[in-house]
Amino acid sequence: MIRQRLSLLAAVLSLVAGPLRAGERIAVVSQDAGTLSLLEAGDDVVTAHPVGKAPAGIALSPDGMAIYVAFPDGGHVAVLDRATGSVQRTMPVPGQPFGIAADSRFIYVSDWSKDRVIKLDAASGRVVATAAVGGSPAGVVLGGGRLYVAGRESGDVTVLAADDMRVLATVPTGDGPYALALSPDRRTLYVVNVRSDDMAVVDTATLTRTTRMPAGRMPYGVAVTPDGAHVLVTSQHGNSLVVIDAAHLTQEAQVPVGLYPEGVVADSGGRAYVANWFSADVSVVDIAGQRELGRIKVGDGPRFLALLPPPSGGVKGTAP
């Protein structure tokens, strides 16, 4: 039985290795297990590293060399080494750090308990500034010199200037906004609302919501493919990945995945990776073929994912 499981895992990993470029990795944060799992192109094993109790949001430094993970219960952000996944140092953060984003100098963390965003100096960990945002802030996205923060309990997204943390706008999006994603050209922000079972589309030029559309039962994660052609939404209560045509805002498919899917990322090879919270695995999905190719076992409670580019490749969409 053990040999069968190992053979199945190796087969799934061989599927994954194809689209990933040499040096690319998928980082998976497992909240229940307290681990970071790394899947590397061309490798046949998933390496899991203990990082601490109940990790949450994950972000990358622009050069892709450092991984930042927020710990709501521990009140800190951990800096992990890309090569090993090991914790290099921690930064104390007041409150409950949850969502996280980073540029070349600063780390931006949503404080779930105090309805604010905290800006940290990435080198020293010093708190540089704070800004009030919507209730129970969750997902955080950085792009175009702006910071977008989903307020789950206030039903809106707060838009701030990243340099001085000024509030530029508050955009109503729906009931329970949780996760966000920017289009590659940064002209469109996609926001999933976990309670109203839909996705809001925000024009970043006018900072207005242009539409809302159904996005599965309790949508919890969202990503945009590198070419901008598709928006991918995880339907937690539908146990599926909703594939949306970005140009026409129409659903193309609902692909069955694992139990209670949350985080999702897409690579440049046409595949999506979905963290299945309750089944403790990651689904590998062929986006064009609209089918699940296989699953990769990871630590219990995977909820957050990040696509790590090759070390010299940089990270798209993280610069301010």
TrEMBL record:
Keywords: Signal. The keyword Signal applies. Residues 1-22 form the signal peptide. Residues 102-265 form the YNCE-like beta-propeller domain. PANTHER family: DIHYDRO-HEME D1 DEHYDROGENASE, PROTEIN NIRF. This is YVTN family beta-propeller protein. It comes from Nitrospirillum amazonense.
